[in-house]
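Help! Submission page says 'invalid entity' but I think these are all valid:
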Amino acid sequence: MHLKVALDYIRRAPFQALAAISVLSVTFFVGTVIAILVYSSSQLLNYFETRPQVIAFLKQDAVFEEVNTLQSRLEADPRVKDVSFVSKEQALEIYKNATADNPLLAELVSPTIFPASIEFSLIDLARAREIIDELKANSVVESVGFTASLGGGEASLNEVVDRLKTLTFYIRAGGVALVVVLGATSFLVLMIVIGMRLTTRRGEIETLSLIGAKSGFIRAPIVLEAIIYSATGVFFGWLLALILVLYVTPAILSYFGAIPVLPRDTMSFFLLLLAILAGELVIGVVVALWGSLLAVSRSLKSK
Amino acid sequence: MVEFKKVSKNFGSIKALSDVSFKVDKGEFVFIIGPSGAGKTTLMRLLLRDYTPSSGEVIFDGKDIATLKKSEIPDLRQKIGVVFQNFRLLPERTVRENVEVSLAVLGVAKQEWDQKVNDILKMVGLQDRAELFPSQLSGGELQRVSLARALVTNPKVVFADEPTGNLDWETAEAIVGLLVKISKEGKTVIVSSHNKTIMDKLGKRVIELKAGKLVSDSGGKK
């Protein structure tokens, strides 16, 4: 009965319903896009964090015991992970694989020019500088490479780290701020629409109250109406974002190459989007419940 | 069943009721008469705890209703069937839905609705108007829908506020006839009216109010 009444309310004032649904759709469209951006930026960071970011090239005359000591020390270091030793032969093998399409290049080099190295990843990119400085001071280390600074050299190390952190921060903080502003606007629009409904139905509310309706009975269709707006807004916002993401995914995947900023298989891709939809539905219902209950309470108090 | 003990109700400097006392027993039929502004509707609203008395007590089923908690007020109202002066029907719902609202409010199981609504609409003679909206009904029919809504939950007390106010003589008599009928079934019926002809014809107890004061009671215990 409450659902029928709620649907009747919507049917009888379609433009108010449209206004509420439109605003909520925009909010959840932006919300979905930002959720995907946050996911992609996390994947981007995770990709860099799980790569062997630091390579300590060892001196040609490095003694096995000293190298072993350095490796053990790094393995015990809580600031680093995925420590591995790459011998000269393994380095040559990597080079050969990388130049497989041009075997002549591999034949031209001697295995002795490739130094052995110790590779590892960093737990926190911000601590790269101190770890690299420590390594440089080690007697068996010839030089230190940092893959995150490729193209810029070690001089731009701090800049690279800062850029990655700033980018992530802006995506997350900017996204949250935008969603909060749009969420607040949606909340107010929802309250205004429900408030208008209550004003036009004041007589009905009073009659229901006089014939013994409990406040839950009076509130139920109004709350349901708000939930319908919210759920519809969530769905349309999500659908628009889905269409947009499907449209740009091939370009994004091609641009980022091996970096999995978005799931590559269809099932994982849709599971991600369904998880976002589920999360947004929960948020939508909470906003609807909160907004409508607040509007009803204000209306019943002012009676 | 219902007792007003020295009840006064003031709205600022306006005295809507002054020191009114009367008692209505179970199964009794009482007319409350008086001109407009005499305090008849105020009595109804006090009985429903829509207003609280400025002084005095309104006793329903042995309990001073002023002491009820806010959450207990709906339970009180569910025991009283009210026929409102201006009908107070829900304009966007059909006759059937208007009557069903009372059952929904009371929490009656949905499978019982059809039987109860059909029976009550038959009793008030509106079985063929069930699917019409209030705007499609005459004044007398609206009053009967209001009566059906008040009676469908089988309340202990029925309070009809000016149920014959805007009706022609024949329709007014039919409405009062229905109220008498339900009174004979053991319900307490309080009817506020200024239709002296009907009252004289029925010969029931009459409480007269004037400017908020009880001026006469033809058969009650004060």
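Support: the input was valid. A stray whitespace character was the problem, and the output above is from the cleaned input. The mean pLDDT of chain B is 88.
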